[in-house]
Amino acid sequence: MTIKEYIESGILEAYVLGSASEEEAMQLLELKTQHPEIRDALYELETDLERIAQSMSIPPPPGALTKIEQNINDLVNIPETKPQLNDGYDHESGNQYIAVESESTHMRVHKVWKLIFAAVFILSKIFLIASIYFYLENRQAQQQIQDLKTELKQYHHSH
């Protein structure tokens, strides 16, 4: 198999997308060090996928950074509290209370947020699949254009 055939076999795309087997990945990494054409094609593919991801990114809403900084500052500035005796009596206010301790390590989230998270997760996967599909279609179309140009040059040279 020639280097060009290896590059066009789809193994580079499988490697970048994480679907290549461990053996294929090791072979690609070894060939990448030996052949600059493979290294360059892999770099070009990674760069193209990064451009696709950046073009599909959504900027954070205005004021998000300020809100995050405020939340961090609020956490840093938590006032120190006095240790309390767990005797069921609030010594400062004179009120009696029942001490309750929780064994749960789970965080409770409102149902709406669960649905929003699920929808965002599903949409992100759909967009990822669509971007990969259109990227591969674009590469195939570019290859067909290149083949047609080559055929056209050969036709002009023969006539």
Identify the notable features of this structure and list them briefly.
68% helix, single chain, mainly alpha
Task: Describe the secondary structure blueprint for this structure.
Elements: H1 3-8, H2 11-17, H3 22-34, H4 36-56, H5 64-76, H6 111-158
Account of the 3D structure:
The structure is a single chain. The protein is mainly α and about 160 residues long. Among the domains are: about 55 residues, no CATH class; about 50 residues. Helices cover about 70% and strands about 0% of the residues. Helix 3 crosses helix 4. It is elongated and about 105 Å long. The mean pLDDT is about 85.
Number of strands: 0
What spatial form do the alpha-carbon principal axes imply? elongated
Order of helices and strands: HHHHHH
Proportion of beta-strand residues: under 5%
* Structural classification: mainly alpha
Helical residues, percent: 55-70%
Quick overview:
By secondary structure, the protein is mainly alpha-helical. It is built from six helices and no strands.
